Amino acid sequence: MDKIRVTGGVPLNGAIHISGAKNATLPLMIASLLTSDTLTLKNVPNLADVANLARILRNHGVDSALDGKRANGAPQQGDTLHLTARDIVDTTAPYDMVRRMRASFWVLGPLLARCREARVSLPGGCAIGTRPVDLHLEGLKALGAQIELDGGYVVAKAPGGLQGGRVTFPKVSVGATQNVLMAAALAKGEVVIENAAMEPEVSDVATCLTKMGARIEGIGSSTLHIQGVDYLEGAVHTVLPDRIETGTYAMAVAATGGEVMLEGARADLLEAPIGVLREAGVEVDVTNSGIRVARNGAGLAPVDVETEPFPGFPTDLQAQFMALMCKADGSSHIRETIFENRFMHVQELARLGAQIDLEGDTATVHGVKSLRGAEVMATDLRASVSLVIAGLVAEGDTEINRVYHLDRGFEELERKLGDCGAQVERLAA
Ligand SMILES: CC(=O)N[C@H]1[C@@H](OP(=O)(O)OP(=O)(O)OC[C@H]2O[C@@H](n3ccc(=O)[nH]c3=O)[C@H](O)[C@@H]2O)O[C@H](CO)[C@@H](O)[C@@H]1O
Ligand SMILES: C=C(OP(=O)(O)O)C(=O)O
């Protein structure tokens, strides 16, 4: 298995182009199941999750074709992906495919809407909590689906097609909102989703669905009204920039010092993290071309943070922020309210000399003068990149094992950081 070696102590200076968002690309790819026409997605990142989902969709009958230099083997940012599900040839999503990635479970709603049946394995994804799927299932049941669990599979049927209905989520769920929204686009009648997730990736999917002919009102709000239509058409849609990648590099620059332009980043997707970085004493300027992040000489103030659904501080930036706070001048409290087991990076950061006390859902991070490089293990996607950030500020070498987690969600991480002067090297197994 590949490792990444980070040699710390170098400030970051330069520019980083922000890729298309993984967590929008995946459901957008799945939306291709809803039409027999071609759905064209632009600004698609080159990630293991994207390749893996293309394989899963192929199994259902979705042809995918990649435009651009990468189609000829050379890497290029922002590929164009054409997805065509002329006929659905298989309505089963098998365990061996779905276990690798949480988002692949979102095929359930679209398959059910188009084929009136689906058999989808219970999902995998980052091991950050129990991550049940009850909200997805209850939502689809409210649209008339009959659902059973059989040998680790969700078996869903809607012999007369999905119907209108009201779905009131007891808790905000990004995935359940996307799953039910895609299914609702082809239901008979009106579907109302209350307490919908307002994450920008949900709005991106809703916007793409409207381009395909769906009738959706309330995009960006917590109540979505969907008038089901008989069929959806193809469309061309550009994936929005990755706010988690943006926040990650912003925190890396804040940690190492220096000045980096995050090209193509959108500040409106990151108001809470930008506010927190400014409170910590980091310069963040929003320009027409992106976000400029700088810290030159100033210390880092400790800031308390609580993760929340959008527009609050995202759980997907919690680990990276913790790595940053390890270098703050004082103690900060970080409370994780979304996932019950998303602190696995704590013990790995401790190997580098971080001082973090964990009690229940709150970590108290005591800033230290310096971190020292060590061998560490990536435990999940965002935890892995928090170790990269810590490695960038640590003295000496940090070797990160199990980098396949990083490859799921960060496009060309070594090159992007390397272009800004960081010493980050992949060691092939
Ligand atoms: C591929 C993708 O987009 N992944 C993101 C998505 O994951 P995902 O969509 O899986 O996360 P959810 O928003 O569904 O999870 C939020 C909370 O709801 C709970 N829950 C969820 C569904 C359900 O049926 N029952 C239930 O109890 C979860 O365990 C969690 O405690 O949103 C998370 C929260 O912003 C992010 O961390 C993930 O990066
Ligand atoms: C948790 C994440 O991914 P997944 O939901 O696919 O596990 C993530 O993107 O941070």
From TrEMBL:
One BP annotation, GO: regulation of cell shape
Pathway assignment: Cell wall biogenesis; peptidoglycan biosynthesis
Main localization, broad class: cytoplasm
Key words of the record: Cell cycle, Cell division, Cell shape, Cell wall biogenesis/degradation, Cytoplasm, Peptidoglycan synthesis, Pyruvate, Transferase
Keyword Cell wall biogenesis/degradation: yes
UniProt-listed Enzyme Commission number(s): 2.5.1.7
GO cellular component: cytoplasm
2-(S-cysteinyl)pyruvic acid O-phosphothioketal PTM positions: 126
The reaction(s) this protein catalyses: phosphoenolpyruvate + UDP-N-acetyl-alpha-D-glucosamine = UDP-N-acetyl-3-O-(1-carboxyvinyl)-alpha-D-glucosamine + phosphate
Residues in Enolpyruvate transferase domain copies: 7-417
UniProt xrefs under Gene3D superfamilies: Enolpyruvate transferase domain (3.65.10.10)
GO-annotated molecular function: UDP-N-acetylglucosamine 1-carboxyvinyltransferase activity
CDD domains reported in the protein's UniProt record: UdpNAET
Compartment list: Cytoplasm
Binding positions for phosphoenolpyruvate per the UniProt entry: 22-23
InterPro entries for the chain: Enolpyruvate_Tfrase_dom, Enolpyruvate_Tfrase_sf, MurA_subfamily, RNA3'P_cycl/enolpyr_Trfase_a/b, UDP_GlcNAc_COvinyl_MurA
Name of one Pfam family that matches: EPSP_synthase
Keyword ATP-binding: no
The organism's place on the tree of life at top rank: Bacteria
Active site: 126 (proton donor)
Task of the protein: Cell wall formation. Adds enolpyruvyl to UDP-N-acetylglucosamine.
HAMAP family recorded: MurA
Family: Belongs to the EPSP synthase family. MurA subfamily.
Protein name per its UniProtKB record: UDP-N-acetylglucosamine 1-carboxyvinyltransferase
Recorded name of the encoding gene: murA
